[in-house]
Design goal:
The protein is of the alpha/beta class. The protein is 35% helix and 24% strand. Strand 9, helix 5 and strand 10 (183-184) form a beta-alpha-beta unit. The longest helix has 16 residues, at 280-295.
Length: 318
Amino acid sequence: MIVTFTANPSLDRTVQLESALTPGGVHRIAADTTQPGGKGINVALGVHRAGLPVTAVLPAADSDPLLALLAAEGLPHRSSPVAGQVRTNLTVLSAPRTTTKLNEPGAPLGAAEVSTLEGLLLDAVSAGDLVMLSGSLAPGLPVDEYVRLVDALHERGARVGVDTSDSPLAALAAALPGSAPDFLKPNAEELGQIVGADGETLEHQAGAGQLDGVREAALDLHHRGVGTVLVTLGGAGGLLVTDDTVWYGPSPAGPVVSTVGAGDSATAGYLIALALEERPGQRLARALAYGTAAVGLPGTTIPRPDQVRPDPSAVVRL
């Protein structure tokens, strides 16, 4: 079983403008959609659409519109009741191929709500499960929440992956190697946050074929206890470190409609490949193919398997 944990879920509203976004201007909306969101939910949707067993764990009131959207998707989920409403994240798509994101912080959780949510997650997990902790933390959750959950889930015999940023990521990095996750999925910016490098420079260098900076940073995390590191580099592709071996693959060619959810789709692709017992190079190829398929879809649309074209032959061992 794959279990995803979304500590700060969202309703993802995407609007398409008829023209370029101009500060202070008046704009007409050509299209408007609302989808279930939050990084762990996105990952769970990708796994679910691949026909694999998955459960999404999240905080939400029983009457929250997000739960109705998850039910409509047929996504197995468990929700912990909270007093506040799930936040809304707004993505504005405008010419020329510009994505602007406006994210709400989320409703604060009280101490009792935090305890209930943690208990719900632990009760959903059995030994041998793979648990993906994804995204930002809702206000009220301690900054070291992922550190504490990695330890608690390891005690349950589960394998644990993490995809987060900023203060929660810094807290996790500070706890290495004692609370090291089995899998970590940073992008270039997040990788830079951990190792003290400039993420934009790392991605630019990778796009120019200079992979030493990303390679050494990812290997550093692996040597600090993280079992597998998957670094997504946007248009520059991605890099995978596992068992002291480094793999690199370019991003497959494809149209760019919306970049929202691309990293989560890559995570879903990797977990799907892991469940299918594919080799490391194949896992990276599937992750990159999922990310590429996602950017060719509108809003926070997570690809189906028939929309994904992995190319393991493009992946090389460094």
